[in-house]
């Protein structure tokens, strides 16, 4: 009788475990809802071999690749802002949920339902999860895939087989995505201008992605051009494309911190017996964790020659020896150096080429020819690179072998008028979004505003000069008008350009109202009414120290 009763009880329990999730999900319960300490229902069901519950949750949209937020009771309680004793109270039931084999003191952060099904040695649950999109290559916080926890035999073979399938499918998806949406197009969405630089970098990365490169050496770029022109931003976007996670896939080294000989130790770590030996080097420590990262050496021209010697080994052999004598392999990394060396020569040459192109276009237009150049981009000639730029680089870096290991020297040119207007528009859109979010103010402007603000471009400061011009001439007025309670809540503001004579311009410079004399254009703020009428704001200048 007791055996029969036990069988009936198990049948009832299985029926309850099947019907209860169906009812909850039917009432709108989120299938990916987490316990307050970080695990999901799918993880519990996978660990406890509840196949019917696993199936219901997956059909209802439970994410098979969600990672567990639980680390251990002390860390998790601290992160969640609860007392560790209270956390312990929550953990004890979880030991029953996850079975006695999983200690609450162990670290399971990042484990997915697939990890837990593998730990439970349950091939059926593992197959169900894999067929619903579980990633067999996903790692937990310790860097282990589910297969690392599988026993030799059926489960291990199953996971190994699906890893191969997943890699093959992933490669096909990525190849199709690259064909549909080339890297050049992706980069141009985030970077204004610099079409030549983008094409050069994208072509080299395409060779690497498709196996047409020397796998014994990493890719090395040298970005040349003025400050604020997009060199660092292009490096970041390449890292985002290659790794998705910018924190893990992007390493930035400010080379102005390595100008002295003794600072080499900061770069690769101190040798045994010296202070800081255990800490490791700034570069070697990060490369060891992410050997395929995109590494940016910012302002490399400021680095000490001994640091360049270390970088030469890095570029030539694709490996680096740290202060402890350990070798770090990083042939899959991409190294990008930036420098302002020869930036003035590059800028002046580009401006000259643009003037020549414009003059040629005017002549062709006058002669009614069809092939008038409508684009503003120009190409740096090979002769200029060899006759002007390379001697400057050799004089500065003083070694041919260093320059010889650079795959591509990439030239960043000054912005042309159309690109300046894009920069101004981007900056104004940024502040228009802030105005709407913070103060419910709608900010509008027209084409002459873009032309006027683009005039603040400084060749030496690049896009930063446009940013400062917008802040000085537009944002200062907005802040002053807001302080003086001239902006009604929910109003619409229009930026406009005026050239009429206005007296009393003294003291207006801080508000961006400079140049209010006869015929000199200035920016004004107007409140636009519901009937489309506009009223110019009378913004009082701040008091001068004399007053």
Automatic annotation (TrEMBL):
Its keywords, alphabetically, are:
ANK repeat, ATP-binding, Nucleotide-binding, Signal
What are the protein's GO molecular function terms?
ATP binding; ATP hydrolysis activity
Which protein, by its recorded name, is this? ClpB family mitochondrial disaggregase
* Stored CDD domains: RecA-like_ClpB_Hsp104-like (cd19499)
Q: Positions of the ANK repeats?
A: 37-69, 109-141
Ranges of residues in domain Clp ATPase C-terminal: 415-505
The organism of origin for this protein: Salmo trutta
Q: Which SMART domains match?
A: AAA, ANK, ClpB_D2-small
The stretch of residues making up the signal peptide is: 1-26
Ranges where the record places region Disordered: 525-547
Query: What biological-process terms (Gene Ontology) are attached?
Result: cellular response to heat
Pfam families under this entry?
AAA_2, Ank, ClpB_D2-small
Top-level taxon of origin:
Eukaryota
In what residue span(s) does the AAA+ ATPase domain sit? 217-362
Q: Which GO terms describe its cellular component?
A: mitochondrion
Statement: the UniProt record of this protein carries the keyword Cell inner membrane: no
Listed transmembrane segments: none
Record has Nucleotide-binding as a keyword: yes
């Amino acid at each position: 009788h007791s055996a029969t009763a036990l069988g009936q009880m198990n049948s009832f329990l299985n029926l309850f475990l099947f019907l209860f999730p169906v009812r909850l999900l039917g009432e709108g319960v989120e299938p990916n809802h987490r316990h307050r300490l970080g695990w999901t229902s799918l993880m519990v069901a996978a660990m406890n071999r509840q196949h019917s519950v696993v199936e219901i949750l997956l059909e209802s949209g439970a994410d098979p690749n969600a990672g567990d937020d639980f680390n251990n009771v002390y860390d998790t309680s601290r992160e969640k802002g609860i007392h560790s004793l209270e956390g312990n109270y929550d953990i004890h039931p979880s030991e029953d949920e996850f079975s006695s084999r999983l200690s609450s003191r162990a670290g399971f952060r990042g484990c997915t339902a697939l990890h837990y099904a593998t730990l439970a040695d349950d091939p059926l649950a593992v197959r169900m999860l894999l067929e619903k999109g579980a990633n067999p290559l996903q790692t937990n916080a310790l860097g282990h895939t589910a297969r690392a926890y599988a026993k030799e035999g059926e489960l291990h073979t199953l996971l190994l087989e699906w890893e191969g399938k997943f890699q093959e499918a992933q490669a096909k998806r990525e190849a199709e995505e690259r064909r549909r949406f080339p890297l050049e197009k992706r980069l141009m969405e985030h970077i204004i201008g610099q079409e030549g630089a983008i094409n050069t970098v994208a072509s080299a990365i395409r060779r690497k992605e498709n196996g047409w490169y020397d796998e014994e050496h990493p890719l090395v770029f040298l970005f040349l051009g003025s400050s604020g022109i997009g060199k660092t931003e292009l490096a970041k976007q390449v890292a985002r494309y290659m790794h998705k996670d910018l924190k893990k896939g992007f390493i930035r080294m400010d080379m102005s911190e390595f100008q002295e000989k003794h600072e080499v130790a900061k770069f690769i770590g101190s040798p045994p017996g010296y202070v800081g030996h255990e800490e490791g080097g700034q570069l070697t420590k990060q490369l060891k964790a992410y050997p395929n990262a995109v590494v940016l050496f910012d302002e490399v021209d400021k680095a000490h020659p001994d640091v360049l010697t270390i970088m030469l080994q890095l570029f030539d052999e694709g490996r680096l020896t740290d202060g402890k004598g350990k070798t770090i392999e990083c042939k899959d990394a991409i190294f990008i150096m930036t420098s302002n060396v020869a930036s003035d020569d590059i800028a002046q040459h580009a401006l000259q080429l643009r003037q020549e192109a414009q003059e040629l276009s005017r002549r062709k237009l006058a002669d009614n020819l069809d092939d008038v150049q409508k684009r503003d981009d120009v190409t740096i000639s090979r002769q200029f690179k060899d006759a002007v730029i390379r001697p400057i680089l050799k004089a500065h870096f003083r070694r041919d072998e260093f320059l010889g290991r650079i795959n591509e020297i990439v030239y960043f040119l000054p912005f042309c008028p159309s690109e300046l207007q894009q920069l101004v528009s981007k900056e104004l859109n940024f502040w228009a979004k802030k105005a709407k979010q913070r103060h419910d103010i709608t900010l509008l402007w027209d084409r002459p505003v873009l032309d006027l603000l683009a005039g603040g471009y400084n060749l030496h400061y690049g896009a930063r000069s446009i940013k400062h011009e917008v802040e000085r001439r537009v944002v200062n007025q907005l802040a002053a008008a807001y302080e003086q309670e001239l902006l009604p809540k929910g109003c619409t503001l229009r930026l406009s350009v005026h050239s009429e004579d206005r007296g009393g311009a003294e003291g207006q410079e801080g508000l961006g109202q400079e140049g209010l004399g006869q015929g000199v254009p200035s920016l004004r703020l107007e409140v636009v009414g519901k009937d489309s009428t506009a009223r110019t704001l009378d913004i009082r200048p701040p008091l001068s120290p004399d007053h």
